[in-house]
C-alpha cells in the first residue's frame, strides 16, 4: 500500500512512502488511519494491527517505530494523538479504538427460562458481548528511539461519539452513550469505585398516594399552630414553610389541582392532601428531593409509627 503526495495545484503526484505489509489484507481488516502530530511526524494504523510512527521530514518517509502494540491480531483505528514535550524529551500519546469480546458469567436462570432458552449458555457457562475499547498508549522518545512507556484501557459499552486528548496529554474528553470504565493502567492499580451509601437519617416527611390524591405528613413540635405554617401551591409546584423555615419546596413530579389542596395540624404533625390531575403513580413529591419516605400501609400512619 502506497502513500502519495499531491500539491494543491494538482500539478503532480509523488510517492512518499510504501506502508510495510506486515499482514496480508483480508476481509475484516479496517481502513488505514493517519494523523499528523507535528510538522514532520505522523502516526499511522495499517488497519491490520500494526501502529507506525513515521518521520515525514524527507522523502521517502522513514519509520521510527512499528509494533503490534495491542497484540497479535488486534486491529484498531486512531481516534486522536498529541505530541508533548516532557523533561527534555518527547511523549507521544495516542488513543486507539478496538472492539473486544467480554465474557459474562450466567449463573441464575429459572426452569422456565431454561426450557425456552434459544442459543443461550447453560448455567456455569459464559455469555459474551462486544464492547468498544479505548487503548490510551504513551510512547517516549529515547536515544534508542520510541518505546512504550504506559498503556491504559477504557471499556465503553455504547457508541463512542467523540474523543479528544488535551494538548498536554494529561486528560481526555470522551462522549459516549453509556458510562465507561477504566479497567487497566500499566503504571498503577485501578481500584473499583466505592459503593455509594445513603446517610442514615430520619426522613424529613412521609407520604402516601392513591389514584386520586397524595397525602404528606411532616413532624411538628407540639407548640406549632396554623399561624406558624405557610403553604403555597400551584398546579406544578409546592412550598411548605414553618416559622420561616422551608420544609419542602420545588416542582412536583406530576401536576396537581391546586384549588383542591387541604391541610391541617393534629397529633404533632402537619398533614397536606394534594389532588392529582391524573391517576399516574408518583415516584416522589418534588423533583430532586429524596428526603421523603413513601408509606405503603395506611395502618402505619394511624399508629403514628416514626412520625
From TrEMBL:
Residues 200-286 form the CS domain. It is found in: Cytoplasm; Nucleus. GO terms for cellular component: cytoplasm; nucleus. Pfam families: CS. Residues 106-125 are annotated as: Disordered. The keyword Cytoplasm applies. This is NudC domain-containing protein 1. It comes from Diaphorina citri. The lineage of its organism: Eukaryota, Metazoa, Ecdysozoa, Arthropoda, Hexapoda.
